[in-house]
Amino acid sequence: MTDRLATIEAGGRVLRLAFDGIEARFHAIWLRDNALDPETRDPGNGQRLITLADLPEGLTLARADWQADGLHVTFAPEGKTVTFPADWLAAHVYDQPQDRTPGRLPAFVQAWTAETGQGAPLADFANLRDDRAALRDWLAGVRRYGFGRVSGLATDPGTLFGIVDLFGYVRETNYGRHFEVRTEVNPVNLAYTGLGLQAHTDNPYRDPVPTLQVLACLENSAEGGENMVVDGFAAALRLRDEDPEGFACLCRHPARFSYSGSSGVRLTSRRPMIELSPDGELVAIRFNSRSAAPLVDVPFDEMETCYAAYRRLSAIIDDPAMEVTFKLAPGEAFLVDNTRVLHARKGYSGAGSRWLQGCYADKDGLLSTLAALEADT
Ligand code: FE2
C-alpha cells in the first residue's frame, strides 16, 4: 500500500499514520488496549477480555506496516501482532481538533422554539407498532427534539404502556408503575390539582432522574388544561448567549432538590440545573421550582450571580416564544426526554373531566432500540 504510511515515533510510544486522506497519530497503549484480536475482544459479543493489568507497563510498538487487510502492528515486549482495518482506524481518530464549546449539542440534537418545535414527530400508534421504519423515524425524531406525540391510542387505562413497549421498559417509582393525573381533593402533589403549573422537568429530586415521561389522555372535556412543552436546551443556550457568566454559574454549582410529600419518602438530590459533560456538551436540565431546595453549594460571592441567572432562565422558560402548546384529545399521548424538555399544563376548570395517565421510562432503552433499528436499515 504505497499511499499509506506508518511511522513509529517517541521511542515506540506513538504511531503516525497517513492513509485514505487521513493523517493522525495513535498511542501504543491506546492501540494495544483496543486491539481487535479474539484474545483481547470476544468475537461474539465484542466485549473486552482483558484489563490494563494484563498489559505490560511501558509497552511499545515494535513494528507497524500496512497490508491489504489493514494495519499490522506488533507490540513489544509481548511480540503480539494484531490487525486494524483502515475503516476502523478512520472511525476512531482522536488526534484532531475537538470542539469543547460549553453548551454545544450533538449533531443529532436540534434545539427548538415555538416555531421550530412544530417539527417534532407525531405518529399513529398502530403504525409505530406495525412498521419498523415508522418506529425508527419517530424515535429518531424524539432523539432530535426530545419530544414526540402519538395518536390513535385506545382510551383504556394502561394504554400508555403500549408506547413504552415500543422501545423499552417502564421505570417504577414511589408514585407506582404509573400515576393518575386528575383533580384530587387533598393532593399529595400539586400535579394532581387543577392549577396551572410552570414548565418543569419531573422528579429532579431523584438521582438519576426518570429520563423519559409518557402522558396519555383518556378523557379531556374540561375547559383549558392544554399541555405545553419547552426545550430546556434551547432555554439554556439562550441564557448562555445573553449571560455567559450566569450560564457558567448554573453549570458550575450543584442545585439541590427534595421531595417528602408522601409518608416514608425522603428523596433528595444534589445536581446542577444545567449539566455539561466534562468537555462541555449540554447533557441535562433540571428545573422545577416546586421541588427546588435551598441552594447551599454556591459560594457566597457567587450567590447573587446564580440567582440572577436562575431568574433569567425561569423567565426564558416562561416566554411564550419558547413553548409548543397542544391540547391532548382522548387517545393521544406525548413523550418527553425528561433530562431536556420541560412540560407544563395550563390551568383547567372543574367542569367536565380531565384524566391523564403518566409513567416513566428510560432513554437509554429508547436510544438502544433506535440504534438497533438504524443498524438494520
Ligand atoms: Fe410533571
Key words describing this protein structure:
single chain; alpha+beta; binds fe (ii) ion; Double-stranded beta-helix; seven-stranded mixed beta sheet; 377 residues; NE0471 N-terminal domain-like
Q: How would you describe the overall organization of this protein?
A:
The two termini are 32 Å apart. Strands 7, 8, 9, 10, 12, 19 and 21 form a seven-stranded mixed β-sheet that branches. Strands 11-20-13-18 form a four-stranded antiparallel β-sheet. It folds into two domains: 5-91, NE0471 N-terminal domain-like (2-Layer Sandwich), CATH 3.30.2020.30; 117-375, 4-Layer Sandwich (Double-stranded beta-helix), CATH 3.60.130. The chain contains nine helices and 21 strands. It is globular. The chain is α+β, with helices and mostly antiparallel strands. 33% of the residues are buried. Strand 14 (255-259) and strand 15 (267-271) form a beta hairpin. Bound molecules: fe (ii) ion.
Brief digest:
This protein has 377 residues and is of the alpha+beta class. The protein is built from nine helices and 21 strands.
Unreliable segments (pLDDT under 50, ≥5 consecutive)? none
First-last Cα distance: 32 Å
CATH superfamily of the largest domain: Clavaminate synthase-like
Q: Catalogue the ligands.
A: fe (ii) ion
User: What is Rg?
Assistant: 25 Å
The sequence of SSEs as H and E is EEEHEEEHEHHEHEEEEEHHEEEEHEEEEH
Write the CATH fold name of the largest domain.
Double-stranded beta-helix
Q: List how many beta strands DSSP finds.
A: 21
* Sheet/helix structural class: alpha+beta
At CATH level 2, the architecture of the largest domain is: 4-Layer Sandwich
Report on the biggest sheet.
7 strands, mixed
Percent helix range: 10-25%
Strand content: 25-35%
Shape: globular
Number of helices: 9
- Any idea how many domains? 2
For the record, the CATH class of the largest domain is: Alpha Beta
Average pLDDT rating? 94
